[in-house]
Amino acid sequence: MKILVINGPNLNMLGIREPDHYGKETYADLVAKIQKHCEAAGVEVEVLQSNHEGALVDAIQGAYGNADGIVINPGAYTHTSIAILDAVKAVNIPTVEVHISKVEEREDFRQISYIRLACVKTVTGHGTDGYLEAIDFLTEGK
Length: 142
Ligand code: DQA
Prior knowledge:
This protein has 142 residues and is of the alpha/beta class.
């Protein structure tokens, strides 16, 4: 069982950016937390981040034949990117959408999620624990 965790723009700024929304844990803390969780569960994991839409599309395409599940926080591309939606549809790998903040209680422009149309589950507002919930959902019973 292999999970690919993909983070979009500005998530490398965790711990610095808007701590009221995203908390004080750094991106390195997040990666370490995911790796520890997966090691304990016996799940292989790869974690990556990019600020570039095309690089995120490349990462999703690269999962084809290589990953059994995807956990993705596309950051602001959640609300704009049909290309990322299409990539998830193309590879047809079970994918969970994660948002650290409670997007449904924020600005109107954050209420649209293109990627949600291709996801088996969405987790919002659970901080970085949301990534672990998403991983558990994808690996349950596997
Ligand atoms: C986010 C929410 C998005 O609206 C925002 O653009 C982000 C982070 C979250 O994790 O809560 O970059 O995806």
